[in-house]
């Protein structure tokens, strides 16, 4: 039985048939049909690139043939292209505990992070935090987050430094009287560790800092409540758990309470109060629109809606219960059936500290993952030595978990991997 409260399964299923029985009683199982997944593939990489919603193909056809091809430039008005960032943001908002008018889907996560960080520094500079000069983040954060902060400190925000903290335990002390902004990724991309958002935000505020949360591995994966979590600003990705499509625009959240004070340096015309007045002076629009910069990739943007539509047919609570059941099952089966092969779990066992992915280290992690992919089990590899498996309750089944573990066991039992496996440009 899947317990809706804990998500844990007991006893541990001992056969594929037992996993199929779990699928038969899974309330989310019918949603798998909303995605087009190839036969013979166990897809455990939806944390990196979500699967394609079935609806995306017809939507792409319509936007290209009719909206662009036939209606041409009129579609900015007639198809609502111009309002799309805000309309999609409102649709995404319930997944992250945001209100309407607080989110826009736009630009990349990297760019939105730059805007959010610059905006947070600007708020501090104009208030009680004017003397603070440090951005605190984790050394283990996703690299682009660190790089964007370094870029900001190196160019626009001269005199600011980026303080990299080595462990979660060291974070509280690193958030001190010099800290202007804390920038954390809520679920770590490598380990799947989930921060306690409310506790960390409260600590940052108690020290006089603002906090920016990156939800790249959280949105659509775990229930979120940015307001209750005390976040100041947030960004996130739509092409991972939200299934928006490769390179789909990301999102940025600015809560109503900060919108009047929020300003960002990428002050393009889409953030202008009256863009078609074509005036020579920038004047930001009221509300979340000031987080926009310029013209958006409309074709990609429209497809984000197809991913969001699927979420409206369930709840994040149901998704979370299944996510924990899937990750618990995967951990337990790997530890039971692949014992003695030197695998090391890097993901927290504690539910509250776990996202929706599981990582195991192996000395030949890259080669083992290459062998898994060759046999249709698609996860990915992250330095150092981590095989990463993402679990996406909308389309991952309990049988998928069983099959993935059995193929992993077979590869390890037989040493059926090539330690000289070649790496592509993207791992
Ligand atoms: C995936 C991810 C990104 C991706 O940023 P892009 O600008 O889309 O390349 C950024 N930050 C984190 C934490 C991520 O997991």
Structure description:
It is an enzyme of class 3 (hydrolase). InterPro entries: Kynureninase, PyrdxlP-dep_Trfase, PyrdxlP-dep_Trfase_major, PyrdxlP-dep_Trfase_small. Its EC number is 3.7.1.3. By secondary structure, the chain is α/β, with parallel strands linked by helices. The chain has 2 domains: 16-54 and 315-414, Aspartate Aminotransferase, domain 1 (Alpha-Beta Complex); 82-312, Aspartate Aminotransferase, domain 2, CATH 3.40.640. It has 13 helices and 15 strands. The chain has helices spanning 16-24, 55-70, 75-78, 84-96, 109-125, 143-154, 171-174, 197-206, 256-259, 298-311, 316-337, 365-374, 398-413; strands at residues 35-36, 42-43, 52-53, 103-105, 134-138, 161-165, 179-185, 210-214, 233-236, 251-253, 344-345, 357-361, 377-378, 380-382, 386-390. The protein has a 7-stranded mixed β-sheet, sandwiched between helices. It has a 4-stranded antiparallel β-sheet with strand order 11-12-15-14, with helices on one face. Strands 1-3 form a two-stranded antiparallel sheet. Helix 2 packs antiparallel against helix 10 (298-311). It starts with 15 loop residues before the first helix and ends in a 14-residue tail after the last helix. Residues 1-6 have low confidence and may be disordered. It binds pyridoxal-5'-phosphate (PLP). Residues 108-110, 142, 144-145, 185, 189, 214, 216-217, 237, 250 line the site of pyridoxal-5'-phosphate (PLP).
